[in-house]
Write a structure and sequence with these properties.
This protein is of the alpha/beta class. 33% of the residues lie in helices and 30% in strands. The strands form three sheets. Strands 10-11-12-9-13-14-15-16 form an eight-stranded mixed beta sheet, covered by helices on one side. A six-stranded parallel beta sheet has the order 5-4-3-6-7-8, with helices on both faces. Helix 1 links the parallel strand 3 and strand 4. Helix 4 packs parallel to helix 5. The relative contact order is 0.15.
C-alpha cells in the first residue's frame, strides 16, 4: 500500500499497487523491466507466463514472482491481474496485446508496438471497445535526463534548437536471435533506430515533414544492419546512424543557435550510477564552455512502470499512448520507403 497524497476527513487515503502479469521470459523482461518494476511504488509483478512452464517457474523463482503459468492464455484468465507487460517478439506484439485487452487487462507493450502502421491502428478500436489503456514501452520518455533535456531546450539554454545528431549501435550476428529474423520484425531500425526517431519528435515537439534514408541489409538475414537517416522537422533537422553490426555506442547531441547539449548514455541509462549531460555555451571548440549536469541514480524501468500504473489508478493518459506509437511507426515506415526509393519520403 502507498500514500497518494490526498486526505479524507483527516485520514490518509492509501492506494493498492497495480497487479501486473508478464507475457514471456524475454531477456528485456527478466533482466531489466521486472527487476525495475518490482521496486516501484505503484507496481507489483504478480505473475509470469511462458509456453514452457519450467521456464516460467524458474523465472518466477529467481525474480520472486508469486505465480507462474505454462501458457499466456492462463495468465490472461487470472482475474487478479490488472495490467500486462508484453515483451514478446515484435510480430507477436499486436496479436497478444489485443488478447490481453479483450481479457480486460491494461497493456504496456514493448517497442516497436507493431510491424506496420496499419497493424498499430487496429489497436485504437480495441482500446475503445475494451475500455483499457494501451501504451508503448519507450522508457526514455519518462527518464529524468530526457525530461531535463527538453526543459533546458524549451528554456532557450542553447538558443533555438536547429539540429539533433545521434548514433546508436551494437554488434549482434547471432542467427538465432529474434533481432536477426526479418519475418519477426527484426533489424536495426525496429530495434534501436526507433529511439532517435521518438526522442527527436519528443524534443522538437513536432512531426517530421519528410525523411531520407540509406539502408544496408545483411546478406544472410535480410534485416537492416546499417542505416543513416535524415528527418526534416519544421524547426530543424535530425541526422542519425544506427547499426546492429558496429561497435557498441550511443550518443545524442542537440545543437542550437547559442549552445549545445550532449547526452552521454541516452538510451540504455544505467540504474547503478548517475547519468550525465554536457551543456556547452559555445564559447570555444575546446570545451571551455562545457559544464556537466548530473541526473541522480534511477531505474528507468521503475519510473516507466510506475508512470503507467499511476495512469491506471488516476485515470490519466499513459506516457506513450497509441497515437504517439502510431506516429512513430509512420516515420519508421517512411524511412524504409526512402531506403528503397532513394528519394525523400513523407510520413
Amino acid at each position: 500500500m502507498i500514500k497518494v497524497g490526498s486526505e479524507t476527513e483527516g485520514r490518509i487515503v492509501k492506494q493498492d499497487k497495480v497487479k501486473w502479469g508478464v507475457l514471456g521470459v524475454a531477456s528485456i523482461a527478466t533482466k531489466k523491466v521486472i527487476p525495475g518494476m518490482r521496486n516501484g511504488e505503484w507496481s507489483e509483478i504478480t505473475a509470469i507466463a511462458s509456453r514452457d512452464l519450467k521456464k516460467a517457474k524458474e523465472a518466477a523463482r529467481k525474480l520472486g514472482i508469486p505465480k507462474a503459468y505454462g501458457s499466456y492464455e492462463e495468465l490472461l484468465a487470472d482475474t487478479e491481474i490488472e495490467a500486462v507487460y508484453n515483451p514478446l517478439p515484435n510480430h507477436l506484439h499486436v496479436p497478444w496485446s489485443i488478447k490481453a485487452a479483450e481479457a480486460g487487462k491494461h497493456v504496456l507493450c514493448e517497442k516497436p508496438l507493431s510491424l506496420t502502421v496499419a497493424e498499430a491502428r487496429t489497436l485504437l478500436s480495441v482500446r475503445e471497445r475494451c475500455g483499457v489503456k494501451i501504451g508503448e514501452a519507450f522508457m526514455v520518455k519518462t527518464h529524468p535526463q530526457w525530461l531535463r533535456t527538453r526543459e533546458l531546450i524549451h528554456k532557450g539554454v542553447i538558443g533555438e534548437l536547429r539540429a539533433i545528431v545521434g548514433a546508436f549501435s551494437y554488434f549482434n550476428r547471432d542467427p538465432e536471435n529474434v533481432r536477426n529474423k526479418v519475418d519477426w520484425g527484426g533489424g536495426g531500425m525496429m530495434d534501436i533506430g526507433c529511439y532517435p526517431i521518438t526522442t527527436s519528435r519528443f524534443i522538437f515537439g513536432e512531426e517530421p515533414a519528410r525523411v531520407a534514408g540509406l539502408i544496408e541489409r545483411d546478406p544472410d538475414f535480410k534485416t537492416d544492419r546499417l542505416a543513416s537517416v535524415i528527418l526534416e522537422f519544421p524547426s530543424g533537422q535530425t541526422v542519425f546512424t544506427c547499426s546492429m553490426q558496429m561497435v557498441p555506442y550511443q550518443r545524442m547531441q542537440f545543437l542550437g543557435t547559442k549552445g549545445r547539449i550532449e547526452m552521454e548514455i541516452p538510451f540504455n541509462a544505467p540504474n547503478d550510477r548517475p547519468t550525465r549531460m554536457f551543456i556547452d555555451d559555445g564559447r570555444d571548440v575546446f570545451g571551455g564552455g562545457i559544464r556537466t549536469e548530473t541526473i541522480p541514480v534511477c531505474d528507468q524501468y521503475t519510473v516507466q512502470g510506475d508512470a503507467f500504473s499511476r495512469a491506471i489508478r488516476e485515470g490519466i493518459d499513459v506516457p506513450v499512448p497509441l497515437e504517439d506509437a502510431i506516429a512513430n511507426m509512420t516515420v519508421i515506415e517512411a524511412v524504409f520507403r526512402a531506403g528503397e526509393s532513394g528519394r525523400w519520403e513523407r510520413p
